[in-house]
Amino acid sequence: MVLAMGRRFFADFRESIRSLARAPRFALACIAVLGLGIGLSTAMFATLNAVLLRPLPVSDQDRVIVAWRENRARQADHVPTPLSQARTFAERSRTLGEVAFADRYFSQPLLLADGVHSLVANGDIVTGTFFHALGATPVLGRLFEPNDDRVGAEDVAVVSYRLWQREFGGASSVLGRQLSLHGSKSRFRIIGVAPQGFDYPAKTEIWMPLVPANPAVGEGEPLVDLYGRMVPGASPRAVAAELSAFLHEAERPEILRGTSGEVHTLPEVVLGDVRGAFVVFCVAVAVLLLIACINVAGLLLMRGVQMYREIAVRNALGASTVDIVRRQMAESVVLAGMGSVVGIGIAWGAVRLVRMVAPADLPRFDQIHLDPTALMAALLIALCTAMVFGIGPALVAARMDAAHLLRAGAVSLSGGRRHAQVREGLVVAQVAAAVVVLAVAGLVARSLLELQQARLGYEKERVMVFELGWDFDRMGTPDASRAYFDRLLPTLSAIRGVAAASALILAPFPSAGWDLSVVAADRSREEQTNNPALNLEMVSPSYFAVFQMPALRGRVLNETDREGAPRAVVLSESAATLLWPSGDAVGRQIMRAKGDTTRWTVVGIVADTRYREYRHPSATLYFSQHQPLIPIVATMVAIRTTADDPLSVVPQITAALHETDAGTVVSKVATMQQYLDGPLAQPRFNAMLLSLLAIAAALIVAVGLYVVLAFAVQLRNRELAIRAALGASPTSLCAMVLRAGARIVGGGLVIGLVLTFVVSRLIDSMLYNIASTDPLSIAAALGLLVSVAVIATFIPARRASRAPVAVLLRDG
Description:
Elements: H1 2-21, H2 24-53, E1 64-71, E2 76-79, E3 81-82, H3 83-92, E4 96-103, E5 108-113, E6 118-126, H4 130-134, E7 140-141, E8 156-159, H5 161-168, E9 178-181, E10 187-193, E11 206-209, E12 223-230, H6 236-247, E13 260-265, H7 266-271, H8 274-306, H9 308-316, H10 321-357, H11 372-398, H12 402-407, H13 410-413, H14 416-452, E14 463-469, H15 472-475, H16 478-493, E15 498-504, E16 515-520, H17 525-528, E17 533-539, H18 543-546, E18 553-554, E19 568-572, H19 573-579, E20 589-592, E21 600-606, E22 620-624, E23 636-641, H20 650-660, E24 665-671, H21 672-715, H22 717-725, H23 730-759, H24 775-802, H25 805-811
Parallel strand pairs: 6-11, 8-10, 17-22, 19-21
Antiparallel strand pairs: 1-2, 1-12, 1-13, 3-12, 4-12, 5-6, 5-9, 7-10, 8-11, 9-10, 14-23, 14-24, 15-23, 16-17, 16-20, 18-21, 19-22, 20-21
Helix pairs in contact: 1-10, 2-8, 2-10, 2-11, 2-21, 8-11, 8-14, 8-21, 9-11, 10-11, 14-21, 14-23, 14-24, 16-20, 21-24, 22-25, 23-24
């Protein structure tokens, strides 16, 4: 019996394949729509799962918080805390259990050596309780313990899973290997590998203990962010209130006054502003899959109507309802199977594309892979859609009178006006959903164009930045650094093809810049309290020539601004306005808001620049490295070249760096355009993914609209033949069909436009310099969809208007 049933099913599948081969347009349309829906939805869900949904590699992630200070009056939104004060708060806290600290300003690429080869890794320094407080479990070896950050303890290090795989091939022999900072005699023994995906605080690849003996810490007290695990019943708001109360106590040092606590859970800090974008992607994926399922449903309903006569013949020949349903079930499974194969291929390609174009700072992008769970869910949805809407018409036909089905015309078989309304309603729903996806994609794409065209405030062309590896034992002080650059910069400027060179303290667009609170010396104490924290740049006088930033008023820094000369500072336009809302700032003086009363005279004003943050120009103070406000060591050099290919002068520059000091090496060379690609990577990624989904939605809608109209025309063949026989011209027949299509599309456009105005408000945070109801972007989306609809409508209309009357009567 089982063998007989197997033979029947095999025969049904074979017959289904032959039947689909006789209707190639229907089969290809179903397979293509299912493939696009399954493939793209699976790929996008895999991305969402890796970035947003999958838990972080820590225990009970929602109880882990990160805390820092903010000063809203001074527009400082992330201010670290001196380590001693952070520890005092942690000891007194009732809302936190385990706590740890990480240096806010240390996160940076480090040039390391293990005796065999050199490598560059993002490093950070943390306290010994860091991994335990977060609840991380090592993949290999052990992680830090409290005794590892004590003075006199062995110098140890923990490496990330990514660094372990990339530099050490995932070998267990990594344990015990010795690493040293370039130019330092201290060596760090690798004791463990962090879990996969653990890269906090900032894409960290190697962690070292935060102890005064660590040469990476340098001089001065570390400024840290606090990491902690909340006690049961505590909330981030309660921790923030407790921290604010601690900061406001009268006994607190002056540096803490005027600040309040800011607390977020670890997932909020790690995911940052990508959460909003990926929620939008999730909605777009659901809409795309919905469009695909609606389209397939419509195709299968029309296929079922077209097969009414065939089912009637089978019924008349003695086929039972079970036989007919089994036959249609086989056809639905074949379609779903073929669509799934195409979908898997599209999903595989889409995941690879996402991995290639994903920005490097996208959280956990290296864990994006084809997700079996998502794939099975999409396949199940596709199969259910095919089964329900494929078997439904067969059940209806099997219960109808066979003689009636054989005698009835095409219009009667179509199910009448009610069925026509269902088919048209499905298309209207598709068009409306596609309008939303296209409009959102258009808004994000236009926002990207606005962002790319934003005025930088400097000339990016032919500028390179060299990040240097230092000999910490000899040159880790401001005096040694200044002396090095005093020797280096004239040598670099003498190289043919080099127009200017300047020292830098930080590369463009770092994770954290240096902010400083200063006051206008000629303003009252009440007025001074509202002065904001401003971005600090410590540069060589040639900095302004490298970036071609002329003075708008006054002058820029020059070689006379050295120790012993009157102290000079250059302000950006917005910094001058913040300090002196009325009147010219040139000639006036500033001083630090707290502590030192030394005054600097404003000698010039330059344009605001997008150097620290791309979306918003920074209000900036420019000090000469020969008149330093705070003891910061410059570790980079910026070069403006005259060569058409800036990279062509890299060998000569590298040789000059080595000749000036044999212990200095280049850890990274990048053009300004490459640095600018960093902050633009996420908007480009957003625009690419949404555009991909929008194009797929438009294609699916085009298929659905074409098939529905072609079927509607077929049902009206007899009417069209009569009109043609009575003298109607091909043009009038074509116009009649086009009007029917316009009615369907118009309804979808109106509904979609209303939905767009509702949904577009969700993407405000993703947009730059345009409104979420930007008429140009929405009009472009509507225009694209109308163009697709016109093409999809015109083809069946033109075919019907030119068909001979005899053919129309035969097919009607």
